[in-house]
Amino acid sequence: MVGEVNTMAQKITISPVTRIEGHAKITIHVDDAGKVQDSFFHVEQFRGFEKFSEGRMFYEMPQITPRTCGICPVSHHLASTKACDVIAGTTPTPTAHKLRELMHMGQMIQSHGMHFFELAGPDFIFGFDADPKIRHVGGIIQANRGPGDQGRQIARLRPGDHQASWASAACTHLRRARWRDAAAARPKTASGFSAAGRSHRDDDGGARVLQGLGRATRRW
Amino acid sequence: MGKVSVATQWLESCAGCHMSFLDIDERIVELLKHIELSSSPITDMKHPPGEGVDVGILTGGVGNEEQEEEAKLMRSRCKILIAMGDCAVTGGICTMRNFFSKEEVLRRGYIETESTVDGEIPQHEDLTPLLDQVVGVGDVVPWISILPGCPPSADAIWFVLAELLEGRMPKLEGKVLKYGMDGG
Which residue, A99, A102, B16, B87, is most buried by CB atoms nearer than 10 A? Predict the structure, then answer.
């Protein structure tokens, strides 16, 4: 965990901070007597979503905002989806609402499993002072070969993106279908676009999924 | 043959490419029989070791001075450099800020956002200055192979690593070659 020590400036730098999402650096300023004068946690990365999201079509946001964070993309996706609901004046159906919740719970299970077992866990299992060359998920996997094989179990505990992406696709298509309905209800201009903006392209796909969801819901 | 050492680093990115790497799930057990994980955001080794690694993987674009240094350091310490994910390949979503000045972008983020009260743009000697423009890794250092996608699927990452381990340069086509977002 020890970073580079710059004795000239009496500054300890830990950079980058690993096993976290994001890009952080810690600097600790120490005086001649070895006492800490000041310490900083620097969040280094700044990408400017606040600016470059301005003026874009609102329905792009559920695709853009998840790129804020690759570890919790679902939260950003759903937050912007809610904003889209408000702009479009729609209320999600109970089915859509449940799908969103399901998707968010899936992310929580995945994210917690990953944070503990793949990122922070090795520190606790090997101890903080263990050699960084083994103090990571690969070290755990290699230390536990055989029938007990905890490493393989750890990898399995984090269920991957399959469930979440299924729910995501369903929500996206459901949303599109609703926009299509809303767009169809608006008066058309001569160019064929609705007066309030372009109607969404993927009309047929949305309708198909909506029909599929309808059938699935009835079966439940 | 000894193990192939692999170092990874994320630059101006969301970490999603590394998450997609972990999405190879239990195949990581098989992978670790053949590779040795060196410096990476998912280990606690900070930088590629001085003796170098066989494969270096960079994700994310280059948007500040430190990221530029990191990219150059990785290039100088690895034999094969892979630019992984759209941000590393083209600058990706991060390049959307290139339409504005960095002052404009910082002011909007730290001062003008609706929820901010008495905001200020952080300034400190230890903080890395932003570059005027975000660029892909290839604009800073030459890569050997690319793996596009936002993020590239776990299967695509597995394919590239497996090909390299077989001693072949990965040839991306069909499902593993994809720019942009999945299912968007």
Answer: B87
Best of A46, A71, A124 to substitute, by most chain B Cβ atoms within 10 angstroms, is A46
Higher pLDDT, B177 or A95: A95
Is the predicted pLDDT of residue B145 greater than 80, yes or no? yes
Residue-wise burial string across A28-42, b where 16 or more C-beta atoms lie within 10 A, e elsewhere: bebeeeeeeeeebeb
Q: Give B168 to chain A, closest Cα distance, Å.
A: 24
Which residue of chain B is at minimal alpha-carbon distance from A120? B42
Question: For residue A66, is the peptide bond before it cis, meaning its omega torsion is within 30 degrees of 0?
Answer: no
> Average pLDDT over chain A, rounded to whole?
73
The span from the CA of A30 to the CA of A115, in Å, is 32
**Which pLDDT band holds residue A207 (cuts at 50, 70, 90)?**
very low
Which chain B residues are within 8 Å of A54, Cβ to Cβ?
108
Chains A and B form CB pairs within 8 A to the count of 153
Q: Which residue from B17, B113, B114, B6 is spatially nearest to B61, judged by alpha carbons? A: B17
d(CA A216, CA A206): 15
User: Residue with structure tokens 């909007």?
Assistant: B108
